[in-house]
Structure formats: C-alpha cells, structure tokens
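input
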Amino acid sequence: MAHIDRRGLLLGAWAMLAARPTFAQSRESIAASPLATTAENQAATFRNQDLARPVRTIPAAGRPRPLPPHARSLAGLSFESGGATRTVDDYMARRRTAGLLVLKRGEVALERYGMGNGPESRWTSFSTAKSMTATLTGAALQDGAIRSLDDPVGRYLPRMVGSAYQDVSIQNVLRMASGVAWTEDYDPTGKSDVVALGAAMASLRPGAILDLMASRHRAVPQGTKFNYSTGESCLVGAVVAAATGKPLADYYAEKVWGPAGMEADGYWQLESPDGLELGGTGVSARLRDYGRFGQFILEDGVAGGRRILPEGWRELAGQPDSEATGFGKLEKDYPLGYGYQWWVLPRKAGTAHDRAFTAQGIFGQFVYVNPREQVVAVVWSAWRQSWQTDSEFETYALLAAAVEALRAG
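output
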C-alpha cells in the first residue's frame, strides 16, 4: 500500500468532497468524487472534473502548434510484458486506457482514444499537475520573480513565517524533501494529513490550505529525506502565485499554454471560488495539449522564439540531485528517482529510458519525456485502483518499445 499512497492519492481529500454537489450539470452521469466511481461512470467523471470544483480557465493559444504525422506509424506496435507479446489494442483494453499519444520530434507516431474519449475530450491530470506547477517555478526563476531556489519559503509567503516551512528552501520543497511531517496515506480514522487537506479543500475557504501547511511540524532536517506531499505541491503553487502576483492559470497561459501552442482551453481547479489553484492536482486538458506540454519540456522551455525556462532547466528538474531523491532511495524495491516534481526512470546508457523522466498521476496518468530519443508520450488511464504497479511497469515496457521502434525515424 505504501507504494500506492506516496503518489498523492488525495483519498481523504476526495472523500471529503464526495458529499458536495457538482458546480454544474454534466450531460454525462458522473460520480461526486473520482474515488467514488463505478467502472461505468469513471471515464465520464474524469472527463468532467472541471464541473466538480470552481475552476479558472487557461485560455488556448492564438495559434496552435501543429503536430504533423510522423513518417512511421506505431499502430502495429507490439511489446513484451509479463512473459507475453502484447499489442497496443491489448494494452488499452486491459489497462483501461482512455488516451495514448506518442510524439517523435513533435510529430505524431501514435494517437489513440478509448473509453468514450475523442480528440476534443479533456481529462483530469491528478498529480501530473505537480510537474506543471514545478515548471512555473522555473518560469518565475527565469523572470526574476523568484530570486533563487535557495530562497526560503517564508520570503514569499508571510503566512509561513513562524512555521516549520519558514526556512525551508524552495528547492527542497520541489524535491519533496522539506523535512516537515506529512502522511500522504489514507487513514480512515481521520489522522492522515491528506484527510486534513481534503477538509481544507471541501471548506472552499480562501487560505485554508496554507493554514493547514503552517500547522505541520518538523520531522527531520530539510534535504535529508524524501516524503511525498500533495500539500507541498500546493505550497509551491502558492509561492509562484505570490512571487509573480498572478494566478497560476494566468501565469501558465502566459508562460506555457500560449507559447507552447495549446489548441484548446484548459481548466485548473481552485481552492475556493476565484481563489488559489490547487498546485498538486486539478488541471484538465486535451490529449494533444498534454503532449505539447511534454514537448515544451523536451525543448528546454524554448517556445515561440523565446526562452521561458532557465537554460538547462530540463536537466535540473528531470534528474535526482540529492542523496534523498536518488535512484532506489524513495521507497523499498522501487527503482525510480525524483527530480523537481518529476519521477526519473533508472539510467543506463543505451537503454530506451536512459535520461527519461515522467509526470505521474493516480489511476494511470503519465506525461513521459525522453530528451535523448526526442520522444514525448502521454497516457490517460482509468485504472480501477488508485495505483497499479504492474500497470505502471507495463506502461514503461510499451513506451520502451515505442522508443526502440522510432529510433530509426
């Protein structure tokens, strides 16, 4: 269970929200919570998460970035997993895949939809939003709104002065190595910090999440231990909003959504009506626009002829840079490392995933970036469990086969 919980299940959060009505009426039948779905309404619920909470729109770009077809199609791709040869169709059916996109140098080698989705469908990000929030930290650093990643959180958030976060560096919050106590697991007795986060979200009260984070206590010295915390991703988002003086959705539109050429509006869920975006979750967008986000990262934050992220941000954010976040250090028997809100696949020269990293979200959401091979992939899923380790590693096997098949292209 620990392997599942550390990805930010927000189990308590969504449990608290389940009793609340949606903010608008969907034309589809949806569950009150993404954790209270049936096999039949899960996909519709994930498609319509912009109706579950107040949101802020991320406006589409004036000129969408073209994603032309690649010369080689992966429609007939097969791969080995679990001692068997699998096909894309087999993978999508068994793993409840709702969208699958593979880009090579910005060209579409594979684009598939399932579970009632199509090119105009939006899908919720869950914790892949953490990687988006971290990217905005890089943009704010490039702009000079954040002076240094060594700056303490308290410099930008007066609410954190006097708390355990006052002197924690932005860098250590990005690493999930603040040293501040947090339990991400679901505790039905109500003792989990995620349950408290859920209560803060359900209150729709401005400032409720920062009040919660200010109440946490120190467990270990900062920088010494990885401890996954959705609350800390919300804290990162609050730092960026305070430093720039702009809502995250507006800053995202200015620095990423517009320059990267997104074809459609996206949505970001808010703490309260017209309030702070949830930095750890809550972005909804089209499949191709998730792909364009991955391409923006692949290209090191250069878009529209402008450098938007600091030079080398891709390498900085997409690799472990501390002992606490190194490969195999995050939890027992788990080989990945952690960058700045990105999961990093083990590195071995010559292998498909060498230097690759990925955003991850519960129920099987991935934005995969492979700079060495110039490949970006997006996977939408509707797993029936919050995290399925076998599904995770089968996804990596599928993506490795895609990378290998495109090497000559």
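quick obs: Residues 1-22 have pLDDT under 50 and may be disordered.
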